[in-house]
Amino acid sequence: MAMVVVGSILLLLHLNLPHKLKVDPLFYVFAVFSLACMLSLTNALEQSGLISGFVSFYVKTGEPHLSTAYAVMTSYWDGGVHLVALLEMIRRMFRGKSYRRLGLLWVGSFIAHHIVLIPGVAVGKYGSGVRPAFWRNIPCLLAPFWAASVILRRPREIPVITADKVAAEQSKGVLSRPVDLLLSLLLVGAMAFSVFRGFVVLDCPLDACFTYIYQYEPYLKDPVGFPRVMMLVYLFYALPLMAVLVCGLKTPGCSWMLDWTLVFAGAVAQTQWCHIGASLHSRTPFTYRVPADKWWPVMAANALLAAAAALLALRCHASPAFFMRPVPKGQADSDKKKN
């Protein structure tokens, strides 16, 4: 039925658009996902008790994991952040404006959502009762990868910067750039935190891991499976990416930093929102919630991880000169004047 509904929507969109109008192929993806985000918002509102009778039958017979705290927080993110981003990209699309940056943020967030959700359901307590409706999430995981490949092939939105300024910025070492040095230290700290929590969910016998999971973040051992998968995603995917981003802050001319910092920021924002919210949510059993006396250090550590990714993306796009392609020797404006 879901496939029939999606197919009908795509057909109606195609029939109602003027045939002479050249439509961006991503429009159809954004339109369908906008509908999915509205359904997610409906689920979030119903699970929170604000409405009733809209999705209870589907949740009970199709995807029972949608009633968990993690799924509720994800549904709010879908119905808020994702929906606004999709509608804004559609608006920009039909006005002929670029939506590349917003698109990469959405791609990172949407992929992070599904790369945690699908394995989390499979390995968690709902894995033994997976219903056919659950497999609709597979196309939802694959579509953003295709969207990312389309968006990345489009030109970047880079301001005009003189060759002299580019050369001057790229001649500075990381010690001469305090903001980049601070961001590098934050990323190294985030890497250490990701490694530590990865060891925790892998049942590392160290006393520090045992203390952390029982006294600081007991949500990591929640049998729903989502927090465990999320920490492993950080360990095996985010950790290498953060290491590469640290190198990008040190090496001039890494223009790919302008793209991957956006993808990383979107992914971290989505995962941290869901993780923090679910660890405090009333639907999470009390024994797995963050203890009241450890609330501040746990929240600070998780919020700092999200802030580091967001600040890195902001830094790269606020002053992109260091990340632009190096100016060949003798091609700077000052050198041309001398010659």
TrEMBL record:
User: InterPro entries, from UniProt?
Assistant: EXPERA (IPR033118), TM6SF1-like (IPR047195), TM_Tm6sf1/2 (IPR059044)
What gene is it encoded by? tm6sf2a
Keywords for this protein: Membrane, Repeat, Transmembrane, Transmembrane helix
Q: Where in the cell is it found?
A: Endomembrane system
What membrane topology does this protein have? Answer: Multi-pass membrane protein
Tell me the superkingdom of the source: Eukaryota
Gene Ontology biological process terms from the UniProt entry = lipid homeostasis; regulation of lipid metabolic process
The record's Pfam families line, in alphabetical order, gives:
TM_Tm6sf2
Residue ranges of domain EXPERA in the record: 179-313
Q: Which family does it belong to?
A: Belongs to the TM6SF family.
**Protein name as it appears in the record:** Transmembrane 6 superfamily member 2 isoform X2
Query: Where exactly are the transmembrane stretches of this chain?
Result: 28-45, 102-122, 181-202, 229-249, 295-314
**Entry GO terms, CC:** endoplasmic reticulum membrane; endoplasmic reticulum-Golgi intermediate compartment membrane
